[in-house]
Amino acid sequence: MRRTLPSTRDMCCFEAVVRNGSVTRAAQELNMTQSAVSRRIGYLEDVLGQKLFVRERQRVIPTLAAQEYADCLHQLINGIEVATTRILTHGRKGGTLVLACLPTFGSRWLVPRLNRFLEGNPGIDINLVSKISRFSFEGEGPHAAIYFGEGEWPGAEMRYLMPESVVPVAAPSLVGRAPLADPGALNNMTLIQHTTRPTLWREWLDFAGLPSANGTVGPKFEYYALVIEAAVAGIGVALLPEFLVRREITSGLLVRPVDLPMQCREAYYYVYPRKYADNPNVACFGAWLKHEVESFVAEPPPTGPRLPV
Predict the structure, then answer these.
(1) pTM above threshold 0.70
(2) Where are the domains of the chain?
(3) Pairing state of beta strands 220-221 and 191-194?
(4) CATH architecture of structural domain 8-89
(5) Which helix (DSSP H) or strand (DSSP E) does residue 224 occupy?
(6) How far is it, in rounded angstroms, from Cα 16 to Cα 18?
(7) In sequence order, which residues have a C-beta less than 8 Å from that of residue 95 and are 6 or more positions away?
(8) Partners of 56 in the beta sheet?
């Protein structure tokens, strides 16, 4: 037995008091009496050899050292809860599936379809977390991820979902009176930049035969959702994955001033660490996702209102 390891019950009581800022609220959360929680705090103070709270009237204020201790315990307790949930559901379908996803892909493509999965799998709860770039499954804990990039992820299984084609789009107020039959007309327009893909415009301009155009100048936005809103607002021309702006194109909020889509090197993948290869939730969601993607890819692309000639 480690002599410096306090009772887990004492630590849970202490963390709950600091988090709630009150012995009373902590006792209610833990289904204990106030006196029992206070005794547990006293036991912990005896083990640590120091006072953990400054008591002022009806308030308990953690010392600086106690606050740092509580922050560490909070992370550890949450980690234990997650690990416990996983082992309780290991080998059987049901429980929580933690899924990492690109934020705009999640909000515009996945979430509108997600109810179909939840209705068909009522025992599985989806915990959707946003990730823009590749991460460590070991350090951050998702069971699986929807990832855009190259088809390689050390230590993980990757299942190809679909390619990505990008196309210039703009508000009709920006190009409605003068359709851009010549891609070179973009040289005189503001190009909206996506900061996590800083070379995308340059790649498209090369693809369109405009290598001398400056594809790095223009207002910059971190998320695709902001790029889309900037284009709708008429700030400039945006280069966007066609499937993310189907709604705006169909409704006429955005038009394609140059109908020249470019397929990117990178693609979308369903990724999960090899240790979850036999996880029934991961397999179930992967099969559903593959079916949804195949149905979506088979849909004809939107045409939207025609630009005036």
Answers:
(1) no
(2) 8-89, 95-162+266-298, 164-264
(3) parallel
(4) Orthogonal Bundle (1.10)
(5) helix 224-232
(6) 6
(7) 85, 86, 88, 89, 123, 124, 125, 281
(8) 59
Neighbours of 49 (CB within 10 A): 6
Strands 237-241 and 156-169 turn out to be antiparallel
Amino acid identity of residue 44, one-letter, is: L
95-162+266-298 is classed CATH 3.10.450.50: no
pLDDT, tens digit, 9 for 90 and up, residues 215-263: 888 999 988 999 999 999 999 999 999 999 999 999 999 999 888 899 9
Domains 8-89 and 164-264 share a fold: no
CB 15 within 8 A of CB 78: no
Interatomic CA distance for residues 9 and 308, integer angstroms: 72
pLDDT by residue (tens digit) across 153-177? 888 899 999 999 999 999 998 886 4
Annotation: CATH topology of 164-264: D-Maltodextrin-Binding Protein; domain 2 (3.40.190)
